[in-house]
Amino acid sequence: MKDTPVEAQIYLAEGRGCTETMLQRSYHPFNFGDYQAEGREPFGALQLLNDDTLRAGAHLTMRVEKPMTVMLLPVTGGLEYKCPLASGFLEPGQVSLLSMAAGMNYTISNPYDTES
Questions:
Q1: Residue 66 to residues 45, 70, 105: CA-CA distances in angstroms?
Q2: Residue of 78, 98, 82 whose CA lies nearest to 90
Q3: Which end of the chain has the smaller Cβ count within 10 Å, N or C?
Q4: Tell me, what DSSP letter sits at residue 35?
Q5: What is the mean pLDDT of residues 41-55?
Q6: How far apart are CA 107 and CA 116, in angstroms?
């Protein structure tokens, strides 16, 4: 079996876009929302790779516009999630993969009263 070379792109942390609201801070390596930059288009099956921090007690509901798999991976703290197919709590290092159909919503919540 022969290996096929694959083109790679490195995205440095300081080159990410940032969106901040009262509920969250979100860093985006790819174009997302108001952040639009040349050369930051998503590619292949990877369409979104945001690094989100939810404020204490905050929750967000996201709508899936096209069929996709959503990966939830808390790095610190933990998060609660809920969608029509599953719900639960994830600790740092745990992963949940949600196979979502177009038009479905999922909610992520920070269950902590004082920690982002």
A1: 12, 11, 11
A2: 78
A3: N
A4: B
A5: 87
A6: 16
| SS3 (DSSP) at 96 | strand
69 neighbors 100 (Cβ within 8 angstroms): yes
Could you tell me if 49 and 9 are in contact, meaning their C-beta atoms sit under 8 angstroms apart? Answer: no
70's enclosing H/E stretch is strand 68-72
Name the pTM for this structure: 0.80
Sign of CA dihedral 108, 109, 115, 116: positive
**Cα–Cα distance between 52 and 68 in angstroms, integer?**
19
Short-list 65, 69, 98, CA closest to 84: 98
pLDDT at site 1: 63
The tokens describing 99, both together, are: 């196979």
Q: In the numeric block, which tokens belong to residue 10?
A: 């490195």
